[in-house]
Amino acid sequence: MQSETVSSKSLIDWGVASRALPGQTVCGDLHLVQPVPFGVLLAVVDGLGHGDEATLAANTAVATLAEHSEETLDALVERCHETLTKTRGVVMTAATLRAADGQLTWLGVGNVEAARIRPGDETHAPAERVLLRSGIVGYRLPELHTSSQFVTPGDLLVFATDGINAGFTKNLPTSDTPQKIADTILERHFKGTDDALVLVVRYLGASHE
Asked: At 145, which CATH number?
């Protein structure tokens, strides 16, 4: 678990919490938070299954994303697909936040959920969720289409793998730190039947110092 602020214009604050399937020593659910010239790249990757092979696939995907982080999201997912053909494959959701104007662009393949939560909307279903397209990166890639919107300072982005129960966005203490929110979601909603990871990102705004 860790929490820090991207140094590039202090665009975001974030926290992550993860847990392996009980009985396993490694977690095949991984994340990436990486500053890029225009803002920040965010990703959550779930290696299929669990154990060492799932972790290998997830690590390969994260390394590919990090190496080519300045490319478009669809190009990044295609690169991951190429590098994962000899692995179990992964499902993943990736997003970029643009520092200049707060534009969020995201793309999901498989079942890594991502939701935008506005401050004060704790008891309502979030208005925006990433559109998830059925497929497996490294095995069967769907037609890729990104979607974009603009976020405002204070908005939360919450990513969760399928080791987290549905409904994880309900009744969140949105005034807490991203790390505490991630810990809370993991504690409340961990299924215990798969690896799990939660990434919580708060957009601070390009002018935040």
From this structure: 3.60.40.10
Any domain includes 208: no
Q: What is the pLDDT of residues 109-165, one digit of tens each?
A: 999 999 999 887 655 544 589 999 999 999 999 999 999 999 999 999 999 999 999
- In what order do the strands lie in the sheet containing 113-117? 2-5, 12-19, 196-203, 156-160, 113-117, 128-129
In a domain, 159, yes or no: yes
Q: Which helix (H) or strand (E) holds 180?
A: helix 178-189
| 209 in a structural domain | no
Residue 146 lies in a domain: yes
Q: Are 60 and 32 in contact (CB under 8 A)?
A: no
Q: Count the domains in the chain.
A: 1
What letters, b where the CB count within 10 A reaches 16 and e where it falls short, cover 176-192?
A: eebbebbbbbbeebbee
Token pair of 129, please? 């969720």
Q: Which domain holds residue 182?
A: 2-203
Of residues 136, 52, 65, the one with CA closest to residue 94: 65
pLDDT at 41: 98
Q: Which residues of the chain have pLDDT under 70?
A: 1-9, 121-127, 207-209
